[in-house]
Amino acid sequence: MAWLAENVRGTRTLDDYASAALTTGTNKREWVVTRAGRIVGVRLNSGGTGTGAGSSTIDVNINGTTIFTTQANRPTIATASTGDWTVLSPDGNVAVREGDVISYDVDAIPATAGHTRTAIAIDIEHA
Quick one: which of 49, 59, 61 has its CA closest to 111? Predict the structure, then answer.
């Protein structure tokens, strides 16, 4: 279940969890932004490996447009790996406005099956 948590510093975390193997697809989860701010972090962790050749890759979008204009910066994890995904910084200052829709896609999985027990967290610092 996706939920929205807010801490005392004005940062909100959008999160999601999939216990089953990841499958490719768009708009795996969507959230509506309730206050303007900027995305300050993306973190993923998988508890189970994928199978087959390749890596798992996700993308984070604002209103359907990626925050990773440099596609090589998208979060990835190798087939046989578990734990934290490699996450490089989004390109530039990723501002969000009230009413924007943030979503994530699973762009790629290993050839046979995607990683399991995968959690994603997207932190938004509000202005």
Answer: 49
